[in-house]
Amino acid sequence: MPKIKIDGFQLFCMMVIFMFGSNLLLDIGKSAKQDVWIVNLLSTLIGCLLYFMYTSLFKKYPDLPMTGYLRKIWGKYIGGAFSFCYIIYFIYLASRVLRDFEELLISSTYRRTSLITLGICMILVLIYGVHLGVEAFARVACLCFAIIIISLLILNIMFVLGGYTRLENLQPVLGNGWGLVWKELIPTGITVPFGELITFTMILPYLNKKSSAVKVGLFAIIIGGVSLTLNSILLLSVLGPEAVLRSNFPALTAVSYINIADFFERLDTFILVLMIILGFIKISIFFFCAIIGAADLFQMKPSPMFIYLVGGVIFISSIMIAPSYQAHINEGLKVVPYLLHLPFLIGIPILLLLTVYIKQKLKPAAVS
Amino acid sequence: MRIGRSLKRAKEKPTTDGTLLCEVSENVKRLMKELGHSSDLSVRMIESPHQKSVKAAVIHLDGLADGNIINENIVNPLIQWFKENNQTLTEMEERASHILTVSQVTVKESWQEFLSAVLTGDTVVLLNGSTKAFIASTKSQPSRAITEPTSQTVIRGPKDSFTENLRTNTSLIRARIQNPDVRLESLKVGSVTQTDIGIMYIQGIADESIVEEVKERVKGIDIDGVLESNYIEELIRDDSATIFPLLLNTERPDAVVGNLLEGRVAIIIQGTPFVLIVPAIFSQFFQSPEDYYQNQYISSFLRMLRFGAFFLSMYASAVYLALVTHHQGLIPTTLLVSLMGQRENVPFPAVVEILVMEMAFEILREAGIRMPRAIGPAVSIVGALILGQAAVEAGFVGAAVVIIVAISAISSFTLPNTSLVNVTRGIRFMLIFISAFIGLYGILLFTLCIWLHMSSLRSIGVPYFTPFAPFRLKEQRGVFFRFPLPSLLKKSSRK
Amino acid sequence: MKMNISLVWMAAICLLISGCSNYRELNELGVIIAMGVDQNDDPKQPYQVTYQVINPSGLSQTSTSGGQSLAVINYTITGKTILETLGKSASVIPRENNTTHLSLIIIGEKLARNNLDLVFDGLDRGKYSRGSIPIFIARGKTAKDVLGVIEPLETTLGKNIISTTQNNQKLYGSSSEVLAYEIISSLLSEGKEASLPGISISNDSQKGKQTENLETTNPTTIKVKGLAIFRKGKLVRWLDGETARAAQFVTSKVKNTPVVLPCERGNVTINTIGVKSKMLTAIHHEEPVIHTDINVMGELLETSCEINLSDPRVLKKFEKKMENVLKKQIKRTISITQKEKSDIFGFGDALSRTNPVYWRQNKKNWDNLYSDAQVSLKVHVDIINSGLRMEPYESK
Predict the structure, then answer these.
(1) Is B439 on the interface with A (CB under 8 A)?
(2) I want to staple B300 with a disulfide (CB 3.0 to 4.6 A). Which of B243, B422, B453, B481 is the partner?
(3) What is the pLDDT of residue B232?
């Protein structure tokens, strides 16, 4: 593996921002109404379990990205085919997030600008970032983390100080029973964003202290999950379950309510800043995974041409992926989780782990 | 322009090698020929009254060597000595260095060393029949007096600054640290100019590997001439495609000493009052030595102010432009109404307005630097008053634009280092263009690009953007705040 | 290096190709700051919308043009939907309309009595403006008339209406600002009906629409008048004065308001300085019971009878008196709303939180349940001081 290294804190920042990613703005799981936060909390727990699974694979092959040990475990051809699928899957996810992000921009401030323009600008920055490599990116991620935390704190303080939070909006707890919660939890709640942490199996080999992977990761998941829970509680208490449900981007709607002393108003800029940073980091991570995976699969160095190529594919598919936002979201909530997320994020890793254990059982001497 | 192509030929000529000859006149002739019968070459032949074959040549370059020392301490003693007795050559060779009453006499035999001694302003005494050159140090290069710093001024603090003379500069530093661990290593860079370069650090505090790396890089420089520290800066920095200054430059001896104490390495170059300090990190460009000469709270405030001013000077005009052309919804209504009122009669688009004002400011600034001192005040009055006031009154630009441009210009001057000011100018223009196209979104994306770029930079192997990225919270405190000296002292003693 | 250069080129080319699609100069914008929606008589084009656009040259101090021009200009357009009129407005307004600064919406009473439900959908979708816009009902007038008044004190009418309401809310409390998102959520909610403040024109005359209005000390002005209560999106009744204020007591939107109590020979004025209320809906024998708990803090500011204010018992007496007065007022208000089957306080919402099971079964029938519900009221008043004097001055 390359010499470049990232440290534990950088990994932590990347993971937390990655989890915030689309969730902070889209507030996934909102169909559970008052109980969104329960969904978030539960999915954090499941996220921890999933992460255990990913890292137990990583511990077996600490120097390889997932596409690498896929081939080690399942052989060159089957593993290679699956690796290739994973690369495509990462590219697809990157373009989905890019689309989310473009739509958000269009519906907030850039209603006269085309998706294409917004997408191209973003993808160019992404290409530049990926070109500079994981190390520089990880450093920027820390900086972004600081900015995100500060702006979130400011926004939340505004919500509370301005008296926009009504805790009674959270009542009744579990008024609709567990049914809605389960429906939201499986499969969306557990796959996005916690299942998507599978991307970090591609990045973990860059970690300087391999032993800290589990600790840092769990810490990040817990912090990220708790923040997401708090965030959904806040959004709920500001907007109320009905408004959250109806709003495409609840955070944006909530922020537009803020008007303190006729001075702290029009804070949509904050959301714009958050959005761009979150989007940038999340898409970058998928992009990186695709590049790392491809470099590993085809045994080559990521050349600029190749980065351009993948960037171009991400951009074009973000435009072509769906004719409208409704179709895009529908696809994201109804089709993708079952067809792609469940097998790729949970199914294949479990099978991999089983194979490893069976192999270990069969020839214990060879493995040890 | 300075690295003349024609001079390249000098390098290709077979180098003058070998040793000195026995015959003085032969040596002198050869020297004359190599220097092209240069008119400032002065050769004084002294012959012994007793013996014709005993003679000496005193050779120096007029103007570079101290004439008084040569008269009093070299020529005069030699004449006396020759008069006094009749000696053999070997005796003379042995005693010659005792006769020359100057601070330093070295004996060299190679022609190359002889030549360079003459060229640096030393006086060389050649004895007839001997292949040794006695090099008496009589360097007295023309130099100006130590003056107040012109580009990095302070209110309270030392008022001396470096001069063009390497020796003066090293002495200014030495005078401040009287410690045996201070190391000064000399190198010559420039195949034609043979410029002296001093690398200074404190043994035991400076990181050995960084010192080695600096030496390696300076040695590796292949250039004809070095006229200013920027030649070195550009040739040893880690990344050439950046507008960020990767090496810190200063003309203040106290700043250099402060950095040496923090374990950095200073590169002092003959012929310029600007000393380079490596490795430099981004946040250092916001620190002025004066931070340590005044109250900690004020200093901390000023440091943060500088960061604020830095951002303001880059972003003010671009953000203004983005707000008025793309995001009118984000401006408070009352402000929007007054901005609209101002813009009613302005014939140009807002981008043009901003660009015209920014360019006008750049022109003024350039004019202010280049023009003769005497007419300076006139131009600033014309620039500031006429351009600003009159442009608004004539309806060329809105008043808000003048304010914004003025703020972004003025705040860039709070930065203690001019290299960073140039960065703000570059980025400001890029941001204005991007902002005109896609507003805040573009500004943010460009900011991300800058961050990515800065994170990938290194200064002599040290990540440039520390402690922001890599993010180190503990170190960041020192970036924004100036801590009281007691706590700083504790830190260094722990080290 | 090569990479950087190619990226810069690509970025430049893309930017140039895309052009400045979002770029608008300030002097190309017609900034709409207020909007009035009326019902049109023509059923084919049911909406008549008045847009109030900022006229920058009327507001700028730097403008050197001689004639005084007005700060705002009104444009009235009719159309099938509100957003259609916004599009049509381009044929009247010479500048590209921009609704991001919309800060006031006035709805004509006629339209409000007819149907309010779908007026707000365009707003709610949020692409064109923010959700925090105050909404008013033009009482007895059309929104167009109200927006037509040239306001002498404030620069723009919208600002005037909003600050008058806020002032009223702070210092008298008969009405309070209701923002678009609040009204939308109460229109959507099954457990809460909408209520909106009304505005009207005082000292109405033709002059009010002309600059002459600025040249008199007794001009035509806007006044905030009453609280409109809705039932299923239709305006059903106006509450005025103390009844309206009582409604604000229940929702604790009022803060400072004078309450006048009678004493032997005159009146005592007690100013509230803090109101806290709690709403609760309990179920007793399958019937909802509406319960409100109001805590009021007040100070005695004025009295015209001879009372010894240094005696705490006297204050206690007034506290009791005030409790009774408030109770009576609030009861009356609640019973009016019960009669109109309009739960403007959100007792239904309160019930849905505490008793979701009962609520799910009965929410369709809530307006009937509400109108029959028992009311239990608890008012507690604390008079904490009596101004700077203990005793009133007496004419001897």
Answers:
(1) yes
(2) B481
(3) 87
